[in-house]
Amino acid sequence: MTVAIQLVDNDGEVAESEPKSDAGNRMVALDVVTVSVLRSHRLRQQEAQLKAGEAWLDSGRVFTQANGAWVEPDWLSDHFDRLVRRSELPPIRLHDLRHGAATLALAAGVDMKVVQDMLGHSSYALTSDTYTSVLPEVAQSAAEAAARLIPRQKAKKTAGLTSGSQTPGTPAKGSPRARTNSKKQQVKAAS
User: Fold this and answer.
1) If we measure between CA atoms, which residue out of 92, 76, 72 comes closest to residue 10?
2) What pLDDT, on a 0 to 100 scale, did the predictor assign at position 97?
3) What is the mean pLDDT of the segment spanning 2-11?
4) At a CB cut-off of 8 Å and minimum separation 6, what does 38 contact?
């Protein structure tokens, strides 16, 4: 689907406008189920257009009023709010669905650059600053993925000793006992 024009409500007057940035003018990839739903919607819309005849207003929109006219942004937001209340869902705004989609995409492992393009953000930093802290599991997943790239040697079994531990009975390097043993070895070598 292509995003090229948006409807903007300025004090009750609706007008067409280009997206806020060049990045907003974009293609949006859709999954096959959504494409199927949209095709079914389009068939129903074409049937409505045939029934309406000359009364049909060809707005060129995917989602329209029953007569083909565009759906005003404030009406859509109000209608969405009523559906949320009727469904007894927690309060959520229509615009929050956009954030939900971005959050789910990141949780699914989608690259931040792809999410930036999907949202039409003008900069990577905007997307990253907005969504990086949203999902700690995304950060954890990134840390684990980076760690998997680092080649590691298999650890040697050390009979329960921690890294840097000495063999039982061996004095630690630099300890008074180790210095005494070192002097004894030097004396023996000189004799």
Assistant:
1) 72
2) 87
3) 74
4) 1, 30, 62
